[in-house]
Structures are given as C-alpha cells and as structure tokens.
Amino acid sequence: MRTQINLQACSVWLIAITFVYLAVKDNDSGTTIIVNTEINSETNDKQYLPYKGYVNFAHCLYGGVRINLIFNVNNMASINQLVSEVAHSLKQPNNHVLRENLRVLILHTRNELIRQSYENHGYVDKGLTQRFRVSLIEVNDGDIDYPKEVTGVGKIKRSTTKVPTPIRLTNNLPFDRVSSVGWQYNREFPFIKETSARFRKYVPGLCGACYDYINGYLYIFPSNNQKFYLDNVIIEGAFEHPTEIMESNGEVDHWDVTFGDNEFLLSEDMIGKIKDIIYKRDLLSNVRETDEVPDGVKYNG
C-alpha cells in the first residue's frame, strides 16, 4: 500500500513539474517570465506576453489530488493560505470541517476589525474599499406592480440585482460613495431614507437625486419628480465578502473563486491580529473533533 501511494505521489509531482516547464519559461534576457502566448495573425509566430507583476494560481487535477502551482507571491495572501497556516498550527491540516470553519472565522474577524478601525479613526482605509458599477432599471414608486389602468405613478430607479452586503459601520451609511460613472461630470448622491426623501428639496444643497439601501437593493429617487436618466452608478465601500466584488469586476478567475485561491482583500498588518483572535477566542470556546478513528479504538475481527 505504501509503495502504491509513493508511486502515485511521484507521478503527480512529475506531471506538476512537466506543467511548470511547459507553462513558465525564461526569455533571452532572463528577466521576463512567459505565462501566456498569442499568435501573430500576419507572421503566424508566437508572441510572448510580458510579465504582469503576479501570476495566477495554476490548478492541476490528477488522481483526486489537487496541486496549487504558485509561480509568484501575490501582494495579499489567499484565504486558503491563511486557513492552511492555522490548520497546520493546530496539527489538523486535513480536517475539512475545521478548514471550512476557519474560512468563516477569517471573514467574520476581518469585518469585525474593519468596523473597530472605523470606530477608532472615523474612516475606512482606502486599501480596504472596493468600487464597482451597478446597472439600474426603472420601477414604479414603492417598487409596486400596479394594474395597467392605473396611471400617473411616479418612476424611480432600482439596481437590477442585489448589491453585496456592506460592512456595518457606526455612521449608519451603507456605502462610502454612490455616484455617477466617470470623473469629469461626476455627481455624488447622498443617502436619504425613502420616507424622508420627498422633504430634501427644503434643505439647501439636497435638491438633487438621492439613494436608499432597502432589502439589499439600491434605490435612486429623482429630484423634484424629474426623470432620472442614468442607467449605471458607481458604488464604493467596504464589503463583507470582497471576492464577490472582485468577481463582479472580472478581476479574478472563476476557478480561483471556486477553490478560494484568489488574492483576498486583507492587509498584512491585520493577519496577526486575526490569528490572535481566532486562537484565543474562537478555537478555545469550541472543541472540534477530526473524522479520524483514534488509535485507542480496537475492532474485533
């Protein structure tokens, strides 16, 4: 049995080394890593793409064993790397239940630290905020479907899909910024509750459009019953699941998101505090057992 396992491991690593050799090469100067190629339509020659600062994870599936081939280290660690560090320190690297629990604990602790940072300093670090574009559709006032014979109902704008959940901050604002797309004619919209939006015209400077965040959707209320012509807006803020924003912007690959190998939005100075909280608070209060059979258990047979 041990010989068979060793042979399988050797064959897996042989395939991995072959994959690395075919995927990564050095050019004549030895300074550029070739991670992809394109075919020139005119000369039918391969053109090597330049090195972009980081290389995504390559995945190799063979014999039920998955190998992560890391060609270069990203600016931030993936959530899988953080989970593995904690799981190995607990001497349970193969405990799937523990790893999934650690994944959730890292997310919870990250969001908790960001909220505490805002309480202490009054702002969220720019490196932890994300921005993405949201498409809008026109709906009836109150988002109610009226019969066709009912006319004269005002129109408002609503996001086509639910907006990812933002981190709860003490300022009671869901996002740092909601504005129009671009910079030259940019217009930022204030946050005003739906029940108070109709009174904003009496406040100087608030006569324009405003927004509210209801049931996970973004609602835009036009100014003084005027039509709101924008079909897209920009949302910026700190979100509970940063990978959702990265995937929405097309910044990460679907397979990286599936396996949790994408760069996780977490600054390096927060990693030590996250580990400390997980070790001293979460892991000590819950006893976790592995799925392995203890050595002391005897079987008749």
Description:
- The structure is a single chain.
- This protein is α+β, with helices and mostly antiparallel strands.
- It is 30% helix and 18% strand.
- It is built from six helices and twelve strands.
- The chain has helices at residues 2-23, 79-89, 96-121, 242-248, 254-259, 268-285, and strands at residues 25-26, 33-34, 37-39, 46-48, 58-62, 65-69, 130-140, 155-159, 177-179, 210-214, 217-221, 232-237.
- The strands form four sheets. A six-stranded antiparallel sheet has the order 9-12-7-8-11-10. The chain has a two-stranded antiparallel sheet with strand order 1-2.
- A hairpin with a 2-residue loop joins strand 5 (58-62) and strand 6.
- Helix 2 packs across helix 3 (96-121) and helix 3 (96-121) packs across helix 6.
- The longest helix is centred in the middle third of the chain and has 26 residues, at 96-121.
- Mean pLDDT is 76; it is low at 1-5 and 19-73.
